[in-house]
């Protein structure tokens, strides 16, 4: 499973990138707002840093507007994936931009039917939002499994990009289901390293080592 980082914070991306953990980046209007940066400037910095796809989201609500904004965002760098919402207008824009040879990420997906439409429209990525379904007491992970089954039934090449990931557990569950990509905030990716037994075991090793009086260097 590929790891994308869901943030527009360049320092946080750089830190994970140095460890080889970053296969791509996703941003959205809320993340740009949180960064306090200009969308084109910050997106360019991220694209220069990361080799994989960097999603930049359009904000127009009509297809023509999305297409124009998508073309403008695509000028930022070769690795831009244009993000459009899963509306009828977004599907139209997806189809046009895909036919121009651009990467398109269809976002705000909350149902298997929406994912099926995005695949038919030729999306490079479909972004089902797990956490926001969980917020409504629905099973976000079930949606990932349903989309996996449907795409595999027909050999759709659209990549399942699990989004709105809120916990380390979401990451391993997405990997078990077979999501192609999971995008998560940097804090969630770092949390994947945590285990109480690791901390406890390391503590015991350190105490025993100290009692030997030895050094390695
Ligand atoms: O990738 C989509 C993500 O940014 C949404 O996450 O936590 O706002 O639902 P969240």
From TrEMBL:
Active site annotation, chain numbering: 83 (schiff-base intermediate with substrate)
Key word Cytoplasm present: yes
GO biological process: carbohydrate metabolic process; ketone catabolic process; pentose-phosphate shunt
Key words, A-Z: Cytoplasm, Pentose shunt, Schiff base, Transferase
InterPro entries in the record: Aldolase_TIM (IPR013785), TAL/FSA (IPR001585), Transaldolase_3B (IPR022999), Transaldolase_3B/F6P_aldolase (IPR004731), Transaldolase_AS (IPR018225), TSA/FSA_arc/bac (IPR033919)
Pfam family, one: TAL_FSA
Annotated catalysed reactions: D-sedoheptulose 7-phosphate + D-glyceraldehyde 3-phosphate = D-erythrose 4-phosphate + beta-D-fructose 6-phosphate
Domain of life: Bacteria
Pathway where it operates: Carbohydrate degradation; pentose phosphate pathway; D-glyceraldehyde 3-phosphate and beta-D-fructose 6-phosphate from D-ribose 5-phosphate and D-xylulose 5-phosphate (non-oxidative stage): step 2/3
SUPFAM superfamilies, per database record: Aldolase
Single GO molecular function: transaldolase activity
GO cellular component: cytoplasm
Family, as annotated: Belongs to the transaldolase family. Type 3B subfamily.
Protein name: Probable transaldolase
Species this chain originates from: Candidatus Rhodobacter oscarellae
């Amino acid at each position: 499973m590929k790891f994308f980082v869901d943030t527009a914070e360049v320092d946080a991306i750089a830190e994970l990138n140095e460890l080889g953990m970053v296969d791509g980046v996703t941003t959205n209007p809320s993340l740009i707002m949180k960064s306090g940066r200009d969308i084109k400037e910050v997106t360019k910095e991220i694209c220069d840093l990361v080799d994989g796809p960097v999603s930049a989201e359009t904000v127009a609500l009509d297809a023509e507007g999305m297409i124009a904004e998508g073309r403008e965002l695509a000028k930022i760098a070769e690795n831009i994936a244009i993000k459009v919402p899963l509306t009828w207008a977004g599907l139209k824009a997806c189809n046009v931009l895909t036919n121009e040879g651009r990467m398109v990420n269809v976002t705000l997906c909350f149902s298997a039917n929406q994912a099926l439409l995005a695949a038919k429209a030729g999306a490079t990525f479909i972004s089902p939002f797990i956490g926001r379904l969980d917020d409504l007491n629905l099973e976000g992970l079930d949606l990932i499994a349903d989309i996996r089954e449907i795409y595999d039934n027909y050999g759709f090449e659209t990549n399942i990009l699990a989004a709105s990931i809120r916990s380390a557990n979401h990451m391993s569950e997405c990997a078990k289901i077979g999501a192609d990509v999971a995008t998560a905030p940097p804090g969630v990716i770092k949390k994947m390293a945590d285990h109480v037994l690791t901390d406890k075991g390391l503590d015991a090793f350190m105490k025993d080592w100290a009692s030997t009086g030895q050094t390695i260097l």
